[in-house]
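Lab notebook: predicted structure, single chain.

Context: the supervisor wants predicted structures on file for every construct in the current expression panel, including those that have not yet been purified. This is the next one on the list. No modifications to the sequence; it matches the entry in the shared construct table.
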Amino acid sequence: MNGYAAAATALLALSGVSSFAPQHSAFTPTKGGAFGTLKSAFFQSNDIVSPSNIAKTDSALWAATLEDAPASSANAKTVEDYVKARGGDRPIRKVLIANNGMAATKSIMSMRQWAYMEFGDERAVQFVAMATPEDLKANAEFVRLADTYVEVPAGKNLNNYANVDVIVKIAQEQGVDAVWPGWGHASENPKLPNTLDSLGIKFIGPTGPVMSVLGDKIAANILAQTAKVASIPWSGSFGGPDDGPLQANLNAEGTIPEEIFEKGTARNVEEAVEAAARIGYENGIMIKASEGGGGKGIRFVDNEADLRNAYIQVENEVIGSPIFIMQLCKNARHIEVQIVGDQHGNAVALNGRDCSTQRRFQKIFEEGPPSIVPKETFHEMELAAQRLTQNIGYQGAGTVEYLYNADSNEYFFLELNPRLQVEHPVTEGITGTNLPATQLQVAMGIPLYNIPEVRKLYGRPDAYGTDPIDFLEERYVDIDSHVMAARITAENPDEGFKPTSGSIERIKFQSTPNVWGYFSVGANGGIHEFADSQFGHLFAKGPNRESARKSLVLALQGMEVRGDIRNSVEYLIKLLETEDFKANTIDTAWLDGLIKEKAVAVEMPSHLVVVSAAVFKAFEHVKTVTEEVMESFRKGQVSTGDIPGINSFDTEVAYMDTKYRFHVERISPDVYRFTLDGNVIDVEVTQTAEGALLATFGGETHRIFGMDEPLGLRLSLDGNTILMPTIFDPSELRTDVTGKVVRYLQDNGAPVEEGQPYVEVEAMKMIMPLKATESGKITHNLSPGSVIGAGDLLASLELKDPSKVKKIGTFDGTLDIAESSVEMDAAKSVTDVLSGFKLDAEAVAQQALDSMSDSASAAELIVSAINEFYRVESLFDGQIPDDVVRTLTKANEDSLDVVIAENMAHQQLPLRSQLLLAMVRQLDTFQDRYGVEVPDSIIEALDSLSGLKGKAYGEIILAAEEKVREAKIPSFDVRLADLRAKLADTETDFTELSQSSTLSAGVDLLTNLFDDADETVRAAALEVYTRRVYRTYAVPEIEVEDIDGRLSCSFAFQFADVPSADRVTRNGFFSNIKDAGNFAQELPDILNAMGSKISGDAAAAGPVNVLQIAALGGDTSVEDLQSAIDANKDKLNMLGMRTVTVLSTQGKKDPKYFSFPQCEGFKEDPLRRGMRPTFHHLLELGRLTDNYELERIPAVGRNVQIYVGSEKTVRRNAAKAVFVRGITHTPGLTSVLGAQRALLQGLDELERAQSNSKVTLQSSSRIYLHSLPEIEGSTPEQIGKEFNVVIDKLKSRLAQRLLKLRVDEVEVKVRVKSVDEDGNPMVVPVRLIATSMEGEWLKTAAFIERPDPVTGVTREFCIIGEGDDVCMLDPYDGANIIQTKRAIARRVGSTYAYDFLGLLEVGLIQEWDDYISGLSGPNAPAIPSNLY
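Prediction complete. Output recorded below exactly as produced.
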């Protein structure tokens, strides 16, 4: 039998499939096979689309061995020998691949692999490809894999791959032996095998007559009915009692008579409507093209209106195909049996696949074996398929498809696809059978039982034997693995899997031992609008379904596709992770249901998406503007006005109906600061070699790709794709696909409702409707047949109700992203500021020097900064900017980024100057930091700055020159010798010397002369030291003498700021000992000596006396000192001792100081450690301790101390304050320059303190400066007025820094020379305060102090100008209500209301700064110093 008669007989047998007796056989396990080969032979690297990684022209590519591949017993060296040995009759050496994309790629790969494994020559079979211009432009992979190609007409497949005449013509011209049709296109057109057969060219597939009946879905269903197979109601059998199924009463030609065939079709819409009405819409209706497939030519509807539209879509999608109507089979699984038949009448079933995961009837996942079907039931399905194909004489590979109901264990014949299917590698993976190679061998006439891989599957020990196999009686070995496949498509899952087209830059795929894949595009390829949307296929193998699923998930997670297209990778991962899929409880309607309900979505936190989009846009902005500026230089233009916009600009992101307007500031080449309505996020951005952005912010690193499209920004964030649409006019209807207009669904001017389809377009061989986004009257902008691209305007709307159009809001809240700052290398930050990046120059200078561990590295940093500043500015100094640009451009034609960099740096001259000035100020503490004087290299670099002549460099040149002058101060030894000479000079006035400002750096230097060989020098050094330390006191008596071999100094002192009549005389005693180790032994004698110098009751006035002991050598511990003092505590109290201070000289280093105050029970006070005896009083630390627990933190300056104060309160989260307190021996603190210098030193110390963990962001900062020199010729009232002016100017100059460091109070104490009521000299202490404690920002006030005559602590503060009777008691109060609220606001990252007054003042300064920055030339003005 043959033809339809054979088909009918076979189908009759199907009616009894359920009665097949169970068959059992001894199964033996089988290992990998072709699956493993494809993996190892083709996908050894991570980047599988790199041409060098996929294919090579030599045989090395095929060196991988097939896992457990049988050794050839035939020893065939040629195709001819092999065919003869295997019982074939037709050697095939040259094959035309009549297909493209995935089909062509896979076929060539598989057949080349087989050739190499059999003959050791992958070129044993030659391949000719067909390629359209679109394929060539898209860099299609199959073109490169083929030996040669022939270019065919562009456009639809009817012009090329589906055009039988074109295929046949090429086959003849190229002299091929056979044509491989693949799937789709002309693979199911009987005309192709018939024509080729007449020309003597082999068609690798079934014969024309068999294809004509089985390849047609209508004919196949008629045959099934004739065989009495239960079928689903369709237009050839409505399921009713009187519309009995159509019968295949074959005519003489062995075909179904035309009139019977026509009864099964719906030839027009009306016939489709009539058939659907008879079937019923209850379960849904399928409209199918009999020549469709792969999801094309098939639609589901559940009402007549949709049916009328869908029928036209199917008609346009598969032009010329008959159409039939079928009821939807609900709760069904799509199960396939892979069959292969040969010309000798054999048919083998190579297991099968479960393809139930479908959307729009197009498969997404395929897996095998179909584990949902019981083993025996599936064997029945295999036998039925074998009998059908065997009895109709089917040749080649094909698929018998069933609908299977797992609940009832019933199955129904669906169709037989007379071709290989795209998912066939699933079968290859579980059976070890290379299907394209099997097709080739069957076409050569080799019996199935002689094909080695088939024999191996059936457990034959000799794979190259020739003994027959009864495939209907024998069973293949047990399948011991599971393969799951995922189709990678150019579709948008967020829009119902709409196909997309465009370029593909790169596909990154990580192969593993369990996962492999292949792709139809090469590097820098693409998907054109006439191609199939599938461009890749991944296959995961495991011992069971769950193992394969997990491997597939991991592979998809590591995959990355970059280009214009959208892809479904992220969505597939979500599907694989659903509970239904894991449990295998899905059916063919499952995925469409999820899509309709949008139940599976790839969700990313919206603010993470927004910030990532802003990062991408900012990066692109920098790149674009940089290139635009360089292009202008190439054209000879010299404007640099756009350069500032490279580092400072605004960018807007629109997402989920909200606009986010960011200001972006580049603070380093790779660090961007994003500011949005109070949100500040620093992002470190690095671009990888493949173009991805690695962005670190919020404590995480994210991988970002982006692409601007006509409809918006397509963002790839950590492997997830998000489309951020451009905000269009709602009256515009635009397309999001590329293709052509098929037809508009409303007349011009007709109304259309929101959500209603208004046009049908063809894209990627699919017809799809586009829906209106608003309601209104439509106007067509194009005509049917117009070619369209994404973003094109298809129609316009006259809006029905403009007021109801969705409004776009502007974000004004808090981003759900942790505010973050990038930890930047301190030294690199110096370079960044010098390069023109906007960082806090003051903080950068402080942190950079703090990070230096030694003087050499610090000097190197400072010198390099000065030299870089000078290098850039010397290019511009005295030059016309345009001329500089021309010169730089000419010298850097191949590196114009250098021209940009030089101008970028110069344009930020004020910021760069601020950095250098801050570093120059740090030289004041260089010796304190590193123990050495400022190196000559720094002085030389500073001296070079004098070469700059421009007015803009004036301030920095003055600062540099001052440091150069200071550097001329002699070395330690020279200074010591100079000081010694002064002390030995009988003309020296010791009182005047002790008050000299030049002695500031030599106070502790005096201690090195306490043991000088010259007795006169020793005595003078001790006297000057004592007078210096007690310079704020009146010292009416002082005597230096040797007592029991110890140089001693006894002196009387009084508070100078108390009227003479009220003063209390206090006694001091200073004694030197040679060895600190003898302290305990010598202390009693020293106390006795002191007692002998005090007349009367030493303790009568209370504890007011002081003792100082200098140890000139040796060493001891604090514990030993404490023990000795404790032993003499009674004696100390008898002497009215207030404080005992022990000084231990350290050579060239500063002495160590330890203080034991009476108020602490003569216990050593850690707060006073390292302080000279009067320091504690001068810094007024006693007043601080009334309300604060103090903890001292390191300071750099010798005359500065820093404390963190925790308020003494029962409140939780008590406010903290940072106290910077210092003394100065330099006069002029009430002048603008003197005050600025002192305040800047205080701010530098405060800046450094910010890095201490004990300082919090809400800590209040307070600065106290005590100026020791007495002021002559001014009254307190004059000083108060001058201070008001000084603070006003300093606020203008330092406002931003004062606010940043949270300075809430600045106190200055000065000493004014005056006389008391009796005309005796005295000092009037004046306290000048600028405070925010009462609300207003740094409001000034001035007070005259009235100290206690005994303790020296101020008892009253009298307001200057308010009369003597307006006085107050004012210790350092704890936080008042204003300060508490201010701390709370700072804690939450906000600003306290009163502080906005300060911000307004800063804003005014910024306006001036921006204005002046826009001016140029030598006469550019400065900011007025008295703005307030």
